[in-house]
Structure formats: C-alpha cells, structure tokens
Amino acid sequence: MSGEEILSSNEEDCNKSQPPFVNRSGYNSRTGIYHSLVKLDTKHEIPTKPDLNTANFVLSQFPQAHLAEAKTAFIDASTNLSVSYSELRRYTYSLAAALFHGLEVRKGDVVFVLSPNSTLYSAICLAVLSVGAVLTTANPINTASEIAKQVRDSGAKLAISSPEELHKLDPTGVPTILTSRSSDGRMLSVEELIEGCYDSTEFPQVPVAQSETAAILYSSGTTGISKGVVLTHANLISIMRLVLWSADVSGSQDDIYLAFIPMFHIYGLVFFGLGLLCVGITTVLMQKFDFQCMLDAIQKHKVSNIPAVPPVILALVKYSSKASCDLSSLRRVGTGAAPLSKEVAQEFRKIFPWVELRQGYGLTESSGGATFFVSDKDAKAHPDSCGKLIPTFFAKVVDTETGKPLPPHKEGELWFKSPTIMKGYLGNLEATSATIDSEGWLRTGDLGYIDENGFVYIIERIKELIKHNGYQVAPAELESVLLSHPLIADAAVIPIEDEETGQIPMAYVVRTGGSELSEDQVIEFVANQVAPYKKVRRVSFIDTIPKSAAGKILRKDLVSQSKYQVVSKL
Predict the structure, then answer these.
(1) Domain-located, residue 303
(2) Spatial contact of 28 and 397, defined as CB atoms under 8 Å apart
(3) Which stretches does the entry tag as region Disordered (predicted)?
(4) pTM for the predicted model, two decimal places
(5) In what order do the strands lie in the sheet with 213-220?
(6) What is the pLDDT of residue 260?
(7) Which of 104, 267, 241, 108 is nearest to 177 (CA)?
(8) Would strands 282-285 and 305-308 be described as parallel, antiparallel, or unpaired?
(9) 103 with 173, same domain?
C-alpha cells in the first residue's frame, strides 16, 4: 500500500499540495508537512454533525440495552463495587436531570470537580457535559490556595468534591455538593441526586454545538501562571474516535484495564473517564497509585492492559520480582506523560517478555493525543521513539532559529495540527497566540525529529517545564514562592534528572546578607505552599543567579553547574 493510498485527508488545507513526499515518513517536501500515514475508515471517521455533544456521543457508543446490563464498566479495586454500563447510563441521566432541574445548572456554567478516581467520576463528567455545562477538574492533592486560583480563573458556579477535600473549597465560597454522602447528612451528594426523584425521562435535551467549550483543563506554562486549556466538544469527540480506533487496531476490545492514572488529568480523562467507555471496556479503578495494590489488582482481576507512566514501568522492573503476585494475565503496558528511557524499556522487556510495551506522546493542548505505536514489533525496533502520528494528525519540525520546516532526521520544534487541538488558553490571548499560529498549528515547545519511516523522537523540552512523576511543574511558579521568603534575595529553579520520578525541582537560592537560611528551611517553606509533586527536593546556595542582558535566567548554566556538582561529589 502506497503513502498516497493511506494518506489521511481530514485536514484539507494540509493536503492542497500533494506528493512528492517520502512514502514511509509521510513528509511532503513542498509544504514541509508530515502526514499521518493512516486514514480512518468509515467506522472511525470523526462525526461532523454540528449539534453533537461529547456526552451524547459517548453514551451512543454504549453496548445495546440487553448487553449493557451484563457488561461491567468499572470495578473499584478497594471495595470490589462494580458498575455496569446500564447502571452508568442511568446514573448519568439521573444526575444530569438533577443538575438541570434541581440545581439549575445551565449551558456554559462551569462545574469544578475535585475527586480521586471513583466509579461515579465518569457519570459526573458525562452529566455535566450533557447539560451543556463546562467541566473543569483538579488534582485532589492541590493546596487550598491552588484550588482557589482555579475556581476563580475558571469562573466555576458549582463544585463537586469528595468529602475528604471539602475543606479546601470552603474558602472559595462556591456552592458545593459531595460525591458521596456526608457522615452528618448535612450536605447534598451526587449519590443522593442519582437516587432522587429524577429519572431518564427527565434527561434534559440541551442543544450544544461541537464548536462550544466542553472542558477547561489546567496545564502549567513556563511563565508559572497556570493556564486553562479550553477544549471543545469537537476536540473531545475527535479524541474519543481515536481511542476507539487505537483499541480496534491493537485488539484491545476485550481487555481488562487498570486505572491508577487520575481522571482529572487529560491522560486519565481521555482513557478511563470517557474514551474506553466508547469501546465497552471493563476498567478496574484505583483511587491513587500504590505499587503493591496495583500488583494485587492485576492478579485478582486478571488485568491485561495498563496505561501507565515511566516511574511505574521502573517500579515493575525493580520490584516486581520481590512480589509474590501472578502477573501472567498482563499483555500490554502503555506509557506516556513523560519520556521512557531506552534502558528501562529494554530491561522491562527482558523481565516481562510476554508483555507489549508501547510509548506514546501527547499534550493537554492536543487533547492527550499525537503519536502511538500500532504494533509491538515497531515499538521494539524503535525504543527511543514515541511512535508515529496518529490519524488526523499533521506535524512540522520547525527550525528554532529560522522558523523553516525541516525534513526527516533534522531536529527542531515539533508543531501539530489536528481536530483535537485546543481552542486556546482561557482568557489569555497572548499565551494562545504564542502557542497556536494563525494557521492553527500548535507549537509544542518540545525539540524532536521524525525519521525516514515516520517515527517521532523527542529530544528535550524547549520550554522549561519540569516533569515529575508525569506531572508538570513550572519553575517560575516555584521561583515566585521562593522570592516571597524574607531571607531570599533571588532564586532560580531547574530540573535534575531522577531515576525514580523522571525529574525533581532543584532551587538555586541567593540569601539576603547575614542570613543563615538552611536547605531544610527552604524545602519546608516551599512544601507548605504547593502540592507535593511540586516540592523543591534540593537546594544549593549561590552568590548570584546567572541572567542574560534582558534579565532572563540562564537555566542552562545552572543545569551545567548542577551536573558538575554531582560529578565532583562522586
């Protein structure tokens, strides 16, 4: 099959100039654009119906009524509580009716969700989306201050919180309902609304266009200002179709999945909160990651497929032999959110030769998708790569100096174009225009290249985000916290490579004159103000922070200095 025959045609403007292009790479030498070499068939084509919302699309993919009752959607790993597709549909309808008729949630209202994974999380998301409201989710381990900022920025009109995190929302004053019943019964809960007086006949029919906002998911930027990524219903429906496609081409329709990736994150939301429901998959849910609990769940529920992150792959390599669990049911592990080293990947394959290991790449701004390995053979043959462009995706590799597109094997900034690309950053035109150009290309801020066979490689991040356990940490945010300390005159934060977590934040601090501020005091000061994954893990005191003539911190100088310090200690 030639490149012309399988060339994706979902973006007409990218196809105006047809080949010559290198068939195996999908590169068009006239336009400088790389094309996905996979065209979606009729079953997986992106729906073009303008008034289709995400919830209605997902619900339309559920098993037929007589099968939905018997098919399990979710199993809680800790309680063994299970929810069938039929029950999930009923929960969604009842909750949507209660939100619309009882709480008067209307189209465009923002609903803030603060909860760990649960068997009700998907129903909450689907109910919010079905009434035309906008979903915004947050990490339960975020501090009250961080949560208040997101509530304010998103303009949330209602919050839905797990009982354990309620105290963090109290200062915001936003009306709040609980995910489960409170012990004293004083607050309304999702459980009660589902069991209340509304049924499927009162499911609200709210007209929602695909072009309208569906979700605002927060992703830190290099400025340190947390930005709301605005995703439309068209974005989410497009990525749902691609999840369905990936399950079909990899033969995952009958797999049992394990979910410890949090559903507040684009990775978890796309897979477990919405996407796999379109496939009819059964997912075992964990509220949070625990290595031994993960092994127990694999054995007990015969888990066959795990979307994971690199630290989990590393833990399996290092510690699984010490556990007495049977992992023979496992047949595929995916990894994303951060780069997986070739060494760890190769060691994993030695220990688990029967398990397919596939790396992927995506961003919140691309609705979580971009590249994927269709076959395990390709993943083994290209261990440094994160796969090929998935259908509907186009890419450019842009020279960071000249701005010109580059051919295969030349390194530059990766740019993407696809129906999944975000609408923009909430209320931030400057950041939006800096990230999406006038033709709709998303600048990823990642340095990489595409080889002659179309495999994508990430070299390093041009942008300054630190990736810790798959989470994004903005150095400027931590610098702002550090500079609020009365005994700190100046500060800079850089990433330090860490085998267990990918990277950790390290602070270079300039103390005020006469100060005897210690490393432990600095670490504690920051830890009290940010989520645990953002904590500074190492501190070095310095006389001055190296800066350019324009006043920008020269982080590369500090990174080099940190490496020298490590070597000198050996």
Answers:
(1) no
(2) no
(3) 1-27
(4) 0.82
(5) 176-178, 156-161, 110-114, 134-138, 213-220, 226-232, 424-425
(6) 94
(7) 104
(8) unpaired
(9) yes
pLDDT at 568: 45
Which uninterrupted H or E stretch holds 475? helix 475-483
State the amino acid at position 527 in one-letter form.
A
Look at the block and give the residue holding tokens 């964990």: 286
Backbone dihedral region for residue 440 (phi beyond 0: left; psi -120 to 50: alpha; all else: beta): left
Give the contacts of 280 (CB within 8 A, at least 6 positions apart): 61, 62, 63, 71, 85, 253
Residue with tokens 């200690």: 569
Residues 501, 436, single domain; the answer is no
- Rounded distance between C-alpha atoms, residue 411 and residue 399, angstroms: 7
Helices (H), 80-177: 85-97, 121-130, 144-154, 166-169
The verdict on 249 and 235 lying in the same domain is yes
Residue 503 and residue 456 share a domain: no
Decide the pairing of beta strands 332-335 and 356-359.
parallel
Distances (CA, A) of 332 to 63, 164, 306, 499, 501: 24, 34, 7, 23, 22
Under DSSP, is residue 261 helix (H, G, I), strand (E, B) or coil?
Answer: coil
The residue among 110, 211, 328, 260 whose CA lies nearest residue 271 is 260
Residue-wise pLDDT for 158-180, tens only, equals: 999 999 999 999 999 999 999 99
d(CA 433, CA 431): 6
Name residue, tokens 């953002």. Answer: 534
Q: Please provide residue 523's backbone torsions phi and psi, each rounded to the nearest 5 degrees.
A: -60, -45
The Cβ of residue 252 has, within 10 Å, a number of other Cβ atoms equal to 19
Handedness of CA 474, 476, 477, 479 (dihedral sign): positive
User: 532: which 2 tokens?
Assistant: 């645990």
Residue 347 is predicted with a pLDDT of 87
Q: Could you give the CA distance from residue 33 to residue 395 in angstroms, rounded to a whole number?
A: 6
CA separation for the pair 105, 112 (Å, rounded):
12
Q: Which domain CATH number covers 423?
A: 2.30.38.10
Q: Determine how many CB atoms are found less than 10 A away from the CB of residue 438.
A: 6
394/444 Cα distance (integer angstroms):
13
Cα–Cα distance measured from residue 122 to residue 443, given in angstroms and rounded to the nearest whole number:
31
Total tally of structural domains belonging to the chain: 3
- What six digits make up the tokens of 526? 């920051």
Q: Which residue has the tokens 């694999």?
A: 298
| Residue-wise pLDDT tens digits, 357-406 | 999 999 999 999 999 998 889 999 998 899 999 999 999 999 988 999 99
Ranges of the chain whose pLDDT falls below 50: 1-11, 16-18, 221-223, 550, 567-570
